[in-house]
Every structure is written in C-alpha cells, then in structure tokens.
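Handout for the seminar on molecular recognition.
Each group receives one record of this type.
Step one: identify the two inputs.
Step two: read the structure output and locate the region that could contact glutathione.
Step three: write two sentences on what you found, then compare them with the reference statements printed after the record.
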Amino acid sequence: MHTLYYAPGAASFVVHWLLIELNIPHALEKVDFSSKQQKSPEYLALNPNGVVPTLVIDGKPLYEAAALLLHLADSRPEAGFAPPPGTLQRGAYYQWMLHLANTLQPPFRLWWYPAEAAGEAHSEAAKAVAEAKIHAVFAQLDAHLAANGPYMLGEKVSAVDFMLVMLMRWSRFMPKTALDYPALAHLASLMKARPSWKQLYETEELTEWA
Ligand SMILES: N[C@@H](CCC(=O)N[C@@H](CS)C(=O)NCC(=O)O)C(=O)O
C-alpha cells in the first residue's frame, strides 16, 4: 500500500503525478502547512526534514522527491519511464535527475523561502540571486531540449520530464517564466496533454498554470 503525504503543488506534486501515471493504488494525506503540520512530532517521525513529500510504502516512510521518482519508475519497468540499468541512457537519466534535484530545485527553495537562508531583511536580494540561478539552468536545459528533445532523453518520455515540468511550474510567479523558453514550453505542452495532468490538477484542486 502507498500513502502519499502531500501539499497541493508542492514537491509532492511530481510523486503524486507518477503514482497516477503508473496506476499505483494510493491513499493521499494532505499536510496542512497553515498549521505547520509538517513540523509536528507525528509528521517528523515519518520525515525528520519536516517537508513534503513523504511516501509510505507498506509501512516504510521514504522521502526526497527525486529518489521517490527513481524508485517508482523502477517499480513499474513496463511503463518505460526509466531506461534499463547499465545502459548509457540510464547514465543520462541519473545525470539529469540529479542535476534537477541538486542544481535547479535548491534555488527554487531559496526563491519560495528566501528568509530561511537570508533573513527577512535580505529576502528580495536572495530572490534575485535565486532567479538568476534558475534562469541559467533553464537556458541550459532549453538548449539541450532544442538540440536533443522533445524530451530530456530524446524521443521517449522519462521520469526526468515529470520532475522538470514540476520545477518549471514553480517559476509561474516570476517576471520571466519557464514558458518563455521555446523548447521548455514545448515540453510543458506535451506533458500537460497527458490525461494524468488533468486528474492531478483536479485531485490537488489546482488552477494556476493549468
Ligand atoms: N529535497 C526535498 C525538498 C522538499 C521541500 O522543500 N518541500 C517543501 C514544499 S515544495 C516543503 O515541504 N515546505 C514546507 C516547509 O519547509 O516547512 C524533496 O525534494 O523532497
């Protein structure tokens, strides 16, 4: 049994998306950020980092969105979201997944929670630094997709594309967004056309960036 602890549109979004895509029966537990439920002793017992997602599989809590994607994609190899282990494509798949988790996701955390790193007084400066980092990565990914797309691994969609589109969505309130990059925008349109996107939006009750 899979139970996903989530908050709408948060880093749990992509885990929820893959659970839907892979047809994995799951229960959802909404974590109430407004009451800081993610910092409660009960939740910290599941995920000591006090963030979502946490995915409990057969009673065992696992966390870190990218790790969960790698695991879920491997658990249903027939879906083809992860190239076979030991192949060069698998190497590229790891490369991009870790690049997104290590290089793109952290400046998004800084953008959304600037005071956490820089204090209230320097939040705007921190956001500007984050935005510059995000756009440097977006420009690089856009060039990669323009030359090698439409998906990050070429002709075939993989778990990396789901991760990337979630991160692109997080730029929606910036003056320049991911959709201002043509190849990234094309990837978003392909991914949003999947029936799972509509189901995800309806279940998480999301409207922005539909
Ligand atoms: N590296 C973690 C980051 C998760 C994360 O930062 N989640 C945010 C939402 S996008 C969160 O739970 N924020 C609530 C908080 O920090 O209190 C992952 O990928 O799972």
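Reference statements: Residues 82 and 158 are 6 Å apart (CA to CA). Strands lie at 2-6, 26-30, 54-57, 60-63.
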